[in-house]
Amino acid sequence: MIALKDTPPETELATMTIDGERVDFRVGETIYEVAERCRREVPTLCYDPRLEAFGACRLCVVEVEGQRNPVASCTTRAVDGMVVRTKTDGVEKHRRTLLEMVASENRDPASAIDPLAGYASQELGALLERYDVHPGGRFAGRQSGSSNEGDKNPFILRDYDNCISCYRCVRVCAEQEGDHAINVMNRGFDTQITAEFGVDLRDSECTFCGQCVQTCPTGALTDKKAVRGSGLPGEVTKTRSVCPYCGVGCAVDLVTKGDRLVGIQPAMDGPANEGALCVKGQFAFDFVQHEDRLSTPLIKGADGRFREVGWAEALQAAADGFRKVKETYGPRSVYGIASGRAPHEAAYSMQKWVRSTFGTNFIDNCSRS
Questions:
Q1: Are 13-87 and 99-289 in the same CATH fold?
Q2: How many CB atoms lie within 10 A of CB 332?
Q3: What is the enclosing helix (H) or strand (E) of 26?
Q4: How far is it, in rounded angstroms, from Cα 361 to Cα 353?
Q5: What is the domain partition of the chain in residue ranges?
Q6: What is the pTM of this model?
Q7: Would you call 182 helix, strand, or coil by DSSP?
Q8: What is the distance of C-alpha 152 from the center of its chain?
Q9: pLDDT tens for residues 15-27?
Q10: Please, what CATH class does the domain formed by 99-289 belong to?
Q11: φ, ψ dihedrals at 128, nearest 5°
């Protein structure tokens, strides 16, 4: 029997059976939440733990003893004494048929899968491979979706030929961000995700937080910068870091290929942001490898012109200059401002230097919030 640990005493618990195993659950949980915690592989394409359950894709159906038809586990509350089967022959046949219908209606999902895109963008491709489903098939016919590649916004590629109408992008925009920048238009094969009056995202309420990209399970929405970087040589590497742009401390994954930064993704398990980022944290990283960025120290000569020098000479010149200012005008004549584009270690070192060298708290950060 699987029991819950560290449960607050005021939490009401109950017991159910999943695939022959008795498990405890908190009253109010859905069957899907209980199954996830018990490590049962229940597939879904419309579910995002940050959003209200929608029950649109029907892939998460399970058999419940006493119920005539399978039920959507993401929208069905667990009940004390309930007996659930998550992987019977009937349920697996149901899931495969649904995936065949999805694959027949859309372009080959493999064409939309990019290893640099959102954390969820390979969900559909992975399920098609798992159930051995291929585009076309017995349900081949009319296709839905219409790409909006003409949208000239600089960040998000809207490739709706791969849209499966899960509405996760619409819901995350409304429920998580409160922007309501995109919505659903028409029905059936003519269903389309659109901004108000069909305008470009630049002219809508979109704040370019990138949440729609991160939640899309098919790659219909993609980070344009990541796509451009996908052609660079080298393996894709992700490094956990913290966004330096403000004081919230959003956790991010820096996506690199070789020595090039090609994308930034919000950390879904970030304690401060829980998968959210602002437009700067998501897309404003061009300065890292910009051709105009200084790579060699410069010192201004008596003639007013800058000349390139080595680091030792540059640091000595800076130290002499600060020492002269302190001796002439006193320690309170120096005020330090750290850059929001510098690593947190640099900001820490700078405040430590100002406080220890000048004995003041005259230190700030341009991105302080």
A1: no
A2: 11
A3: strand 21-26
A4: 10
A5: 13-87, 99-289, 298-365
A6: 0.79
A7: strand
A8: 22
A9: 999 999 999 999 9
A10: alpha beta
A11: -65, -40
